[in-house]
């Protein structure tokens, strides 16, 4: 049986923010995502994702990738 604890992209979301020039805060990322039309993603949501306290659905993965200017594959560690 295959069990996933947390989510696959927690570390990559954190790393993706850190690699931005200048580095992006959780608030910056949430604001960028909200400007893209996903008003349900807040700083608290980003924090919970990064701490493996919240799962990420496919639509959220897509918008996270777009906001961080990375591929969805990169976000999940491929």
TrEMBL record:
Gene3D superfamilies: lambda repressor-like DNA-binding domains (1.10.260.40). InterPro entries: Cro/C1-type_HTH, Lambda_DNA-bd_dom_sf. Residues 24-75 form the HTH cro/C1-type domain. One of its GO terms (molecular function) is DNA binding. Coiled coil: none annotated. It comes from the Bacteria. PROSITE patterns: HTH_CROC1. This is Helix-turn-helix transcriptional regulator. It comes from Anaerotruncus colihominis.
